[in-house]
Design brief:
YgaP-like_TM, transmembrane, membrane, mainly alpha, transmembrane helix, elongated, Inner membrane protein YgaP-like transmembrane domain-containing protein
């Protein structure tokens, strides 16, 4: 698995988790979903992604998006 796919998989899991928390725990967890979406949007424009940096430190090989 490349870094690009790991970041996408992680973002998908976090979004699903935040939706489940919103539905079953408390409606204010929707702000977690908003935070994830904003982070994905800023990384699309800046190329800076904290999750990609962590995965890179864990030794996942780079793809073409996060170099």
């Amino acid at each position: 698995m490349t870094l690009d796919r790991a970041v996408l998989a992680f973002a998908g899991v976090m979004i699903l988790l935040s939706v489940l928390l919103t539905l079953f725990v408390h409606p204010l967890w929707v702000w977690f979903t908003v935070f994830i979406g904003l982070n994905m949007l800023q990384s699309a424009f800046t190329g800076f992604c904290p999750a990609a940096m962590i995965f890179k430190m864990l030794g996942i090989k780079e793809g073409c998006a996060f170099q």
